[in-house]
Every structure is written in structure tokens, then in C-alpha cells.
Amino acid sequence: MLTLIVVSFTLVVASVSIGSWFARTIGLSFEEKSDDLFADFWLGFSLILVTSLAAVACVPLRIIAAPTIILFGILAIDGLRRIWSSKGFTAIDAFVAATLVLLAGLAGSPPSQVYDSGLYHYQLMEWYRSYGAVPGVALLHPRLAFTSSVFALEAIAEWPPLKGIGNMVNASCLIVSLWFTANKLCLAGRGNTTPSVLYWPICMIVAVPLLWVALFSTSPDILVCLFVAVLGWLAVKYESFSDAARSWQPASFVVVGAGAFSAKASGLAVVAVSLLVLFHIYRMQWARIAALAGLSIILVLPVLIVNAITSGYPLFPMVGLRLPISWALSHETANTVREAIDNFPFVYQSQHGVPATLVAKLTHLFWVDNSALLSLGILNALGLIFLASVYGVRPKAWPISIVTIGLLMLVGIGLATRVPATRYVLGYLIVVPAFALAHLKERWLLATFVVCFFIWLFQPWQYLNRLDVVRVSVFGVMILLLMAVSNRSARFSALAVLCLCIFQYMRPLMNATQFALGAVREPYKLLVPPVPRSLALGEFVWVKHGEVSIREPIGGNLQCWATEPPCAPADANLGAVKDLRYRKMGSLGSGFVQSE
User: Fold this and answer.
1) Cβ neighbours of residue 348 closer than 8 Å, sequence gap 6 or more
2) What's the pLDDT at 594?
3) Which residue of 50, 259, 439, 546 lies most exposed, with the fewest beta carbons within 10 A?
4) CA 134, CA 53: separation in Å to the nearest integer?
């Protein structure tokens, strides 16, 4: 736990240092110092993600791990100086941040429990650390070409003395996000209930807890969700078109979009939205548009290059653009992967691999995994009606916030029709309801309780455990109390918000408590987190594919965990290639090609 806390703290403060430099370069500054620190973190963190993925394309990350950690330490010192000089960090902020760091350290110390972490996340970290981007590694298994800067940054952080901190990227972002939430809630408690103050806390209270399994894990889904919310927050903070159009401040949209795309392929939509927002802000200022579009291309290049190296498809797995190189996946395999993603979670329900129809996908919105999509869809419709009454329906009168949030919502609807799974589209579908709730001023607290109650009420009751039932009951009671008490004191409101947060983040808090109780019996876990497991003898077999031998898990298990490469599950659904050759005999780092 202590190791994870130290590394997360270093990453956060180093991100602030880099972000503050970039913010000064583009002239980005807000009235609230806490807003500056928050923007600095996300800008710097986005640049770190993009740079870490660029490093994967060049060298094995084990070569640069030690110098990078030293560099982060130097940047952290500068970041601490900037935080101290900004005077945006009060004693209350420090107390809240320390509490969140402790809880995040406890919740994030155990190895990730997400199924995909064992399936390919930890395995990709091993490849990145030992070999970097390997040409044709997707031929071993297509999931090994699911590029993410999250895995690259975690591979650098998991330098051998620091093994077991793979959750630190998500933990770091959640620490900052929850601190900022508490900071804004303090402002709201003092009577400042403007949309720019309430938007972020509502996002964090209403939507993010729905990803409870992925919160403290290696999953990039939570990071994409946060990046979408950050793009919406930046749009809300801009006061008018004229101020933004006369500066380079909209470059912040480009950087955040690139960070989202580097984390996961679905973040490409954030890049598209950021570019559309640039056109909307600058209108006919073609020089500025061209300059920032060029910056966007430069920042997304690392993802395109790593994708091309690992799979032969620069936009894998979203677009079937195949490069004429020897190690590229076949069109059939790439299409199979794309169909498996589009039909998720229908892979195990379709007959003989028949793709699910659009009607089947829409029907599946009512199933347990996606019940939140139905409630979010209704909330989006209600939010649009409310925002239309506030801002009107004439495009010329729309501020940047409405344009950006509207575009994000449209992207979310498009993604939901292709891949109906809440975790893929959650960030895109929460921005409209959150922005609408942020306009309710004194009534926002009551409305937030109602929305949380509404979302959880759609969960199929047979799948809820007793604590979830308690959560719904508490939400209902608090709604009645808030309706009954018309003149609420600040203390009562603070207790209501605390109650709301505790019950929304119940499961991560339970994980933290369980780890703390377990560490009482084994105190060394508080210093060094448990190392992710690797397959032992008897849990895998060597299988020869052409001239390449690969470890494959046995016993119906598809998870390789942090086993030394090469390890890949025999997943027939993704059409893994059977006949392989080394590009250079016996060298894993040189890559693979498919036998003719």
C-alpha cells in the first residue's frame, strides 16, 4: 500500500508540473486556484500518457524505467513547489487528499480483479516492459494489440522493485478527481451553486460509481470515462466564444482528446469531438485550426504507430484499414475481432457465431449488465428538455459547453447502438444529465439523490446483494428527508452529501476495509502490495503454432496474468493464427509473421 501511495503521489505531482508548464504556454488560467491545479493535472497526465506510449514504439520500457522514475521524482519536486505557491491547496484540501490517498491505497493495493486484467492487461505490461511494441504480436492473440497507454505507464511504474502497483494509474486519477469533488462541494456548501461548480461533483457521484469493479484496477474504461467528463468540464469553464477564440486555450481540448485516445481506442471519439469544438470556436480562423489540428495529429501518432507495429492496422480494432506489411492480421481475423467487440456481450448468446441484430442489442439494454443504459437514456432525454428550456434551441445562442456536451452525448448514443455495454459508453452518456442537474442550484442535492435512486431502481433485483438493497433504501429515505426539510442548514446538507458519497462508493470502500483487516494479520502488505499472480507449472502447456511455441492456460482458463511472455489464451472466437514464424529466428522482440 505504501509503495502504491508513493508512486501515485509522485505521478500526480509530476503531472501538475508538466501541465502547469503547458497551461502557461497556451495562456490557460481560471479564477479558482483549485481549477488551475485540476486542469494542470489532466493536461500533464495526458501528455505523460501519450509520451509513455511513444516510448513503447521505440524501446523496451525496462531500459528507460529507472531514468523515467528519477525524472518523475524531479518533476514531482517542481510540482510540489507549484502547488505550494499557487495557494490553491488549503488545510481542508490537504486533510481530504490525505484521507483519499489512504483509502485509495487500501482499495488499490490488491491485484486487479477485473477479468480482462488476467486475460491480457498484465500480459501486455510484460510485453511492453520486456520488448516494447513487437511487430505482429497480435498474431499470437488479437487482444495483445489492444493498445493502451495505461499499460505502458503501469509497465514503467512496475519496475521490478515496485511490482504489484498496476492499479496506480486509475488510483491516481480517482484521488485527484475525488479531491476536486470535495473541494467543489465545499464551495457549494458556502452558497456557490453555479453549473461550473456543481458539474464535476455530480459526474463523480452519479456516474463513476457505476464502474465499481473497474475503479481500482488496470482497466482503461474508468480513465476514458473521466477524460470525457474532463472535456465537458473544460467546456463548462469557458465563459464565452470571444475569449477562447482570441487565444490558444482550446489546445487543452486537443490534449485531453489525445490522452483519451491513448488510453483506449474508444477515446478516438473524444479526439473527433475536440476537433469539432475547435471548428466551432475558431470559425474561420484557419491558421489556428490548422495549427491545433496538426498538434492533434502529432499527439495521436504514438497510438497509430504502436497499432501498426503490433497488428498492421493503425486504427485497430475500430477501423479495418490494413497496411501492406508482412505481419499484419488478415482481414478475416480483424473482422472477427471487430464483430466480437460489436456483439459484446452477445458472444456467448448468439447461435454458431451469428452476429446479434440491432433489435437484439436494443432488447439487451434491459438486461442486468446494461440496465444502467436504460436509465441513462431516460435521463439524457429529460436533461435535453431541461437544457433546451434554459439555452433555447437556436444554435447561434449555444455556448461552448452545450456544443461540446451535445456532441459527446451523440457519440455515446452511436457507441451504445454498436456496443451495448455500460462501461464502454458511460462517460459519454452522463455529461448531459450532469450538466442539467448542475443548473438546479439549491435543488441540486435533492435531484442528485433522486437520480441515483432512479438509476439503481432499474437494476434487476434478483442480481442485487443486500447492501445494494440497503443503498436503494437509504436513497429513498434521504429523498423524503430532503423534501420534508425546506430550510436546510449547511451541516445537514454536508451530512446528506457524505451519505450519498458513502453509499455510492460502498463497494470500493468495502474492498479497502477488507484489505486493511487482512493487513492487520500480515502487516508487510501495508508496505509492499501483493504481486499479481503468474501461471505455475501445471497451469499451462506449451503449444506449437508453426515454429513458435506459446504458453497456453489449461483447464478452461483463458487468463495468462503476469506470466512471462509468450503466453496467449487459445480463444477460437477471435480466430487466433495457427501457423507462425519468427521474423528473426528465436527472437520474441523481433516479432512474428504468418506462414504463407
Assistant:
1) none
2) 86
3) 546
4) 13
Q: How many residues does the chain have?
A: 596
HSE value, Cβ hemisphere, 13 Å, CA-based, for 589: 11
Quick one: CA torsion of 301, 340, 141, 259, rounded to 10 degrees?
30
Residues near 356 by beta carbon (within 8 Å), at least 6 away in sequence: 343, 346, 349, 350, 364
The cell numbers describing 539, all together, are 497451469
Give strand pairing partners of 551: 542, 567
SS3 content of the chain, % helix, strand, coil (to 5): 70, 5, 30
Average pLDDT, the chain: 88
The answer to whether 255 and 296 have CB atoms below 8 angstroms apart is no
The values of phi and psi at residue 567, to 5°, are: -140, 135
Tens digit of each residue's pLDDT (9 = 90 or more) over 190-221: 888 999 999 999 999 999 998 887 888 999 99
Render pLDDT for 489-536 as a digit per residue (tens, 0 to 9): 878 888 899 999 999 998 888 888 888 888 777 777 777 777 888 999
Beta-bridge partners for 542: 551
Handedness of CA 44, 45, 46, 52 (dihedral sign): positive
- The per-residue pLDDT for 168 is 87
In angstroms, rounded to a whole number, what is the distance separating the alpha carbons of residues 275 and 292? 8
Give whole-number Cα distances, 67 to 49, 152, 157, 159, 270, in Å.
17, 15, 11, 11, 32
Neighbour tally for 180: CB within 10 Å: 23
* Burial of 390 per CB tally in 10 Å (0-12, 13-18, 19+): exposed
Give 70: exposed, middle or buried? Use CB within 10 Å, 0-12, 13-18, 19+: exposed
pLDDT at 166 over 90: no
244: its cell numbers: 477562447
| CB distance 531 to 506 below 8 Å | no
Q: What is the rounded distance in angstroms from the CA atom of residue 338 to the CA atom of residue 265?
A: 12
- Indicate the SS3 state at residue 108: helix
pTM of the model: 0.94
Give the confidence band of 347 by pLDDT, cuts at 50, 70, 90.
Answer: very low
Residue 336 sits at the vertex; the CA angle it makes with 332 and 340, to the nearest 5 degrees, is: 175
**181, 53 in Cβ contact below 8 A?**
no
